[in-house]
Amino acid sequence: MPEELQNEEQLHTHRPLFLSILCIIVFLGSIGGIIQNARGYFKSEEVVDYIKSGKSKTQLKNVLSFGSAKEAAINTPINIANLTVENYEKFSIGGILSSVLALVGGVLMWRLQKNGFYSVTLGTFFSIITHFLLFGDNVAAMGLSIVAALGGLFLVILLSFQLKNMD
To answer: Each residue's pLDDT tens digit in the chain (167 positions)?
Structure first.
């Protein structure tokens, strides 16, 4: 009987390599998100002016455009009605909060606690919801940050396969 309890304890204290790798990705992504969004908050006026000036031409627009469509995308001025300094600051605060949620979730998952998965999932969805609440479905306003949020969704799907290894 004591051997069974010992084996059961070992089963739940062993972290699979794949889960460890995913946790490290969550740590790095959330710390990067906190830094990037904090920088965006403090430089929000510069960022908004840069985007509205048309100099940025948003990376996503350039990535998704080919040939002559790319030329047209580069020469088209960007008009984003709801891209204001206040909205960008709110967006940055939302990004910081979602990154903190993901970081807390990563720590909890590292400790093999299921609540960590739910925290990462909440942080990922909070990031996506923040995009749509502040900027609507305007892809030009979202740029590559929506790609990062979709990458977070993919990470949540991968983490969901590891729930059986957590308590």
So the answer is: 555 555 554 445 688 999 999 999 999 999 999 999 999 899 988 888 877 776 655 555 555 555 555 555 555 555 566 778 888 888 889 999 999 999 999 999 999 999 999 999 999 998 888 877 877 766 555 666 677 778 888 999 998 898 888 88
Cα–Cα distance measured from residue 83 to residue 85, given in angstroms and rounded to the nearest whole number: 7
Measure the CA–CA gap between 95 and 128, rounded to whole angstroms.
9
Beta carbons within 8 Å of 81's beta carbon, 6+ residues apart: none
Measured from the Cβ of residue 52, the count of other Cβ atoms closer than 10 Å reads 15
Q: Classify residue 23 as exposed, middle or buried by CB count within 10 Å of its CB (0-12, 13-18, 19+).
A: buried
For the whole prediction, is pTM greater than 0.90?
no
Distance CA 161, CA 157 (A): 7
Write down the residue that tokens 């957590």 correspond to: 166
* Residue corresponding to tokens 């969901």: 160
Domain boundaries defined on the chain: 17-165
With CA atoms as reference, report the closest residue to 167 among 120, 115, 123, 118.
115
